[in-house]
Each structure stands twice: as structure tokens, then as C-alpha cells.
Amino acid sequence: MGIKGFWLGLAVGTISTCLLGQWVFSASSKEPDPPKGIAPETVADYIHSIVQADRTFYTNEIVERMQTRGIVSASEQWEETGDLPLPAQFVLETGRLVAKQSNGMRFRLISNWPINKKNGPATEFERTALTKILSNSNRPYTGVTTEGKNRVFQALYADKAISQRCADCHNVHPKSPKRDFKGGDVMGGILLTIPLPQ
């Protein structure tokens, strides 16, 4: 399964890099009348749709199918046990791979109820965004923020339990601060960070 994860990560990274490269190239052109670049909101929507599709496929067609057939399980200790990464870990790991690229684009999971405390909100934007997506989970909460001297566009998309099995996994985890999730509930968000031309 390691090679499939590698190819999925490579696909996400390649597509994201191409989309972001086009946007940055268009936005930073020095021509007298430069062509319009792709709006960061649109770039974020494109990237989110890829991340969400990869995660849904991984959850439904790899993890669920393999576990149902008794071939292999997904576990939190996947690196030690040789099991599959949990779907949330799949997103976190691909996000780490994307963050290693030089384009500055990043994505990660955050939640008001993280099992791992490092996945909690770290900024005022993140805290506000997590509150806003609970009341309107159909559209991301977006804004322009700063990291040091650099301006970045951020978008938080609602992260919903894809299945009841996802919700149950969180509900029974000994470190879970919330134990009443149902399939389809907002469990947190996928935070995208895209650098803006300076």
C-alpha cells in the first residue's frame, strides 16, 4: 500500500503545484497589461476539491474495503504496525509532503476537538473560522492574513465525518474530547494556506 500512498501524494502535489504556479505566474507578471491571475478563492476551491476527492477515495475504496474484507486495518500506529494510516492521518501526511515543496502552499486538518492537541486552532483566524464553519458548512471561511512579513490567503473548509465509522473512531478514542459525532457531522476543518504575491 506504500506505493499507492506515494502516487496519491505525488498526484496531489503535482496538481497543486501546477495550479499554484499558474496563479503565481499570472499574478506576478511584469508586463504593462498583465493577464488576470486566478483568484486565490478559486485556487483554494480547486485544491480543496482534489484533497477531498483523494481522502474520500482513500476512505471508501481503500480503508473501508480492505477492513471489510479483513485484508488490513487502518490504525493510529500505522508506521509501527504496517497497517494503513487512518484517513485523517492520510490527509495530514500528504499535507506535510506538500508543505515541503518550495511553493509555500500548505494544508492541514484542524479541529476544536482534536485527538492530537497540535491539530487544534493556533491563530485567531483559525479559531474564528472553526466557529463560522459550524454555522455554515457549505462554504469555506476565508481571509487574508500575515505570516511574518508575508501575506497569505487562508481558507477553512468544513471537514465532515465521511461515514459513521469515521465518527465512531473519534467517539471511542480515549483522547477524544467529544464523543457524540454522527456520520456527516462537522468534525473540524481542512485549512489551506496559499502565499500571495508580495
Structure, explained:
A hairpin with a 2-residue loop joins strand 4 (141-147) and strand 5. Helix 1 crosses helix 4 (87-99). Helices cover 47% and strands 19% of the residues. The protein is an alpha+beta fold and 198 residues long. It starts with a helix and ends with a strand.
Please tell me how large the radius of gyration is: 18 Å
Question: How would you write the strand order of the largest sheet?
Answer: 3-6-5-4
Unreliably modeled segments: none
Number of helices: 6
Mean residue pLDDT: 87
E-strand count? 6
* SSE pattern, N- to C-terminal: HHEHEHEHEEHE
Oligomer: single chain
In one word, what is the shape?
globular
Beta content: 15-25%
Q: What portion of residues is helical? A: 40-55%
Which structural class do you get from the secondary structure elements? alpha+beta
Quick synopsis:
The chain has 198 residues and is of the alpha+beta class. It contains 6 helices and 6 strands, in the order H-H-E-H-E-H-E-H-E-E-H-E. It has helices at 2-27, 40-68, 78-81, 87-99, 124-135, 164-172, and strands at residues 74-75, 84-85, 106-110, 141-147, 150-160, 186-195.
Spell out the blueprint of helices and strands.
Layout: H1 2-27, H2 40-68, E1 74-75, H3 78-81, E2 84-85, H4 87-99, E3 106-110, H5 124-135, E4 141-147, E5 150-160, H6 164-172, E6 186-195
Parallel strand pairs: 1-2
Antiparallel strand pairs: 3-6, 4-5, 5-6
Helix pairs in contact: 1-2, 1-4, 2-4
Summarize this structure as a short list of keywords or feature phrases:
198 residues, alpha+beta, 4-stranded antiparallel sheet, two-stranded parallel sheet, 6 helices, 6 strands, 47% helix, 19% strand, globular
